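Backbone-to-sequence.
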């Protein structure tokens, strides 16, 4: 076994997160993770991964759509405030260390443990895969571990539904460190690298709203359920969708349940605390306030949030916009590969596979 003697780490703690390209992003992505990412750029070394390889696990017959969706997500990221000068936008399929580490980590993860991951079971059900999913679909869960550990982050901003993946990643990081680096199984997670491990034990970081209800009033916001408000929706579309939020309340003089979906939006998006509190008081008391009045205030608040995003997104919508996005991806991936290749070298040395150095270049 070889020990990691300790490479110089970045002064700022490192963060890794990302999205599988499925098209444009919605408000659930914003409150669940994206707003967190924008904020974290101030204090952390951030890597934001475009998991386009994972998209092929359920859409292998749609390569052009996956390519389009990859570009659209980056437009949303930049419009929302991701700064490619401060953060790395990383393309998974041009980061070969991830694929190689996926193979190594697959040796450390049993099939039974993989299938106990509730996120996997949920995705099989939601996507109606039954028992017809590909082997690659299961491998993507291992690939997510490699996505994260390739960058040796301290934190992983995710939605609540991804926490089981983070826990599985933590298990594999511990196991690798113990098996190949001789780290004491009783060592504290915070001391993993200091104890000689290649990998820190990353922590999940859930956004301020773990699960935003969709406009149907009952299910999590999801494009597959057609209950979303997109970050790129225009002002009229936003208000129209907000007006559809279902509460079941019948009368403005009927005391209302402020724990319903509509008031999740009040708490999430109305920044004026006094206004939000007054709406809540009147609604609970049945003080002559209908759902429509509340929805107008919610729609106004959401449009205030999205207006600068819409304006910034216009930069990338005209001729040459996609080329700008591809340049952002290329430059970020070049920088990210330096980190991922270093991680792979350290891992292979620990495993006794470090026969000679290699260099990776992207044009």
């Amino acid at each position: 076994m070889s020990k990691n003697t300790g490479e110089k780490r970045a002064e700022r703690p490192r963060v890794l997160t990302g999205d599988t390209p499925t098209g444009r992003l919605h408000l659930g992505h914003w409150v669940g993770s994206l707003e967190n990412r924008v904020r974290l750029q101030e204090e952390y070394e951030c890597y934001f991964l475009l998991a386009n390889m994972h998209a092929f696990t359920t859409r292998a017959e749609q390569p052009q759509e996956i390519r389009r969706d990859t570009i659209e997500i980056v437009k949303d990221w930049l419009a929302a405030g991701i700064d490619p000068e401060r953060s790395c936008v990383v393309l998974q399929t041009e980061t070969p260390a991830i694929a190689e580490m996926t193979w190594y980590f697959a040796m450390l993860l049993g099939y039974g443990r993989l299938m106990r991951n509730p996120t996997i079971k949920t995705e099989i059900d939601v996507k109606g895969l039954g028992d017809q999913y590909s082997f690659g679909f299961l491998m993507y869960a291992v690939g997510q571990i490699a996505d994260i550990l390739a960058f040796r982050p301290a934190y992983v901003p995710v939605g609540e539904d991804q926490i089981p993946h983070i826990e599985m990643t933590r298990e594999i990081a511990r196991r690798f460190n113990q098996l190949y680096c001789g780290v004491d199984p009783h060592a504290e997670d915070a001391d993993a690298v200091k104890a000689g491990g290649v990998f820190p034990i990353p922590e999940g970081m859930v956004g301020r709203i773990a699960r935003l209800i969709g406009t149907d009033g009952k299910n999590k916001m999801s494009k597959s359920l057609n209950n979303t408000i997109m970050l790129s929706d225009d002002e009229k579309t936003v208000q129209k969708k907000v007006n559809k939020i279902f509460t079941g309340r019948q009368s403005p003089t009927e005391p209302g349940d402020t724990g319903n979906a509509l008031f999740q939006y009040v708490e999430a998006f109305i920044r004026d605390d006094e206004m939000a509190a007054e709406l809540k008081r009147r609604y609970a008391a049945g003080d002559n306030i209908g759902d429509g009045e509340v929805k107008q205030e919610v729609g106004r608040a959401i449009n205030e949030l999205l207006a600068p995003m819409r304006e910034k997104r216009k930069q990338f919508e005209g001729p040459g916009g996609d080329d700008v996005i591809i340049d952002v991806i290329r430059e970020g991936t070049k920088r990210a590969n330096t980190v991922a290749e270093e991680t792979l070298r350290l891992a292979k040395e620990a495993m006794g596979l470090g026969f000679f150095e290699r260099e990776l270049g992207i044009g």
